[in-house]
Amino acid sequence: MTTIDQLFDIADHVSAEEREWQLKAREFAQTRIAPIIDQAFEDRRLPVELLPEVGEFGAFGMYLHGYGLRGASSVAYGLVALEFEAVDSGFRTALSVQGSLAMGAIYKFGSEEQKQRWLPAMGRGEAVGFFGLTEPQGGSDPSTMLTTARREGDAWVLNGKKRWIGLATIAQVGVIWAKDEEGVVRGFVVPTDTPGFQATAIENKLSMRASLQTEIELTDVRLPLDAILPEAKGLSAPFKCLNEARYGIAWGVMGAARSCLEAAVARSQSRESFGSPIGGKQIIQAQLADMFLEYQKGLLLALHLGRLKDAGKLTYGQISVGKLNNVREAIGIASNARSILGGDGITSDFPVMRHMANLESVRTYEGTDEVHQLVIGRELTGLAAF
């Protein structure tokens, strides 16, 4: 148990089953991901060889029911996300893309045949999935979607581009969102071996380097009529999937914050300046105390959102509060930790600079700070300012 856990231990507030999930995820993250993550970050490589192991212990789509999935609580999923992101945001992102976005879309909106075909294999990590919503010109405004789906005899034909799509170059299947001939956004299950589908990895990232984001080109991709997600009509469908991912982020970034805080506490005890450890200086203790307060508040907020979600009471506005606050505070904690570490804080001897870089991406995806501010503002005023 770390000093941080002694001061505030989340185990005091979760069930035995939820704690078991957390400890299982922590062991996996610390023994399988942590030893290779710095080199993977340097090599700009997602450790894809670990994805089947994630499937083996059941973390993909773990809060979904049936189809061989575990039906765990939303809090349990949040704790797994926290432990994964305590090692690296990129690996937690893979968990989210597969389990919350790709599997979530098929689970919520797919036909029974689509669910039976894909969910068991994806849950086991035997099939990898992606979620194709964002476009190069669209960013946070998917209503500008240019990807089209037209009926042509007994087929749907898709054309367009997607960008910043996780896992697509290694996926066997994905969900592509496109506008039909009436301008309605629909979802389609797209096997990646379909002619006309091409995914290319985005290589020049300075953040999320141990992750996999891609650009997709769809050129006359022909799909059978039953490739459409029958229950998905309009932008509300992909937004429901995005909210699942945003919920996981509220937990995950507190893992990154914990990692940075632990590094700062340990360094404050070992680094000496002016004849004594810097941890004995009032200004350092004040910084550490403030960092811990924001970590604890963020974790309690995530727990509260998880309990609301499990009770079926979590709203879009509340999810935006969690995503906006916790990412913002995690970035602040990482920045303060880097300062306490001094010059060494920018090296790979510590995980802090890697977390700082990754968190800038987390701040951007699944809705920027500004988008979530406007969501919260709409909830407060009843007026949309988008």
TrEMBL record:
Q: Which Gene3D superfamilies match?
A: Acyl-CoA dehydrogenase/oxidase, N-terminal domain, Butyryl-CoA Dehydrogenase, subunit A, domain 2, Butyryl-CoA Dehydrogenase, subunit A, domain 3
Q: Where is each Acyl-CoA dehydrogenase/oxidase N-terminal domain found?
A: 16-126
* Necessary cofactors: FAD
Acyl-CoA dehydrogenase/oxidase C-terminal domain location is 233-380
SUPFAM superfamilies recorded: Acyl-CoA dehydrogenase C-terminal domain-like, Acyl-CoA dehydrogenase NM domain-like
Task: Please list the GO terms describing molecular function.
Answer: fatty-acyl-CoA binding; flavin adenine dinucleotide binding; glutaryl-CoA dehydrogenase activity
Q: Which UniProt keywords apply?
A: FAD, Flavoprotein, Oxidoreductase, Transit peptide
Q: Which is a GO BP term held by this UniProt record?
A: fatty-acyl-CoA biosynthetic process
Acyl-CoA oxidase/dehydrogenase middle domain span: 131-221
Which Pfam families does this UniProt record tie to the protein?
A: Acyl-CoA_dh_1, Acyl-CoA_dh_M, Acyl-CoA_dh_N
Is Thylakoid there in the keyword field?
no
Instruction: Extract the InterPro entries matched here.
Output: Acyl-CoA_Oxase/DH_mid-dom, Acyl-CoA_Oxase/DH_mid-dom_sf, AcylCo_DH-like_C, AcylCo_DH/oxidase_C, AcylCoA_DH/ox_N, AcylCoA_DH/ox_N_sf, AcylCoA_DH/oxidase_NM_dom_sf, Glutaryl-CoA_DH_mitochondrial
Q: Which family does it belong to?
A: Belongs to the acyl-CoA dehydrogenase family.
Query: How is this protein named in the record?
Result: Acyl-CoA dehydrogenase family protein
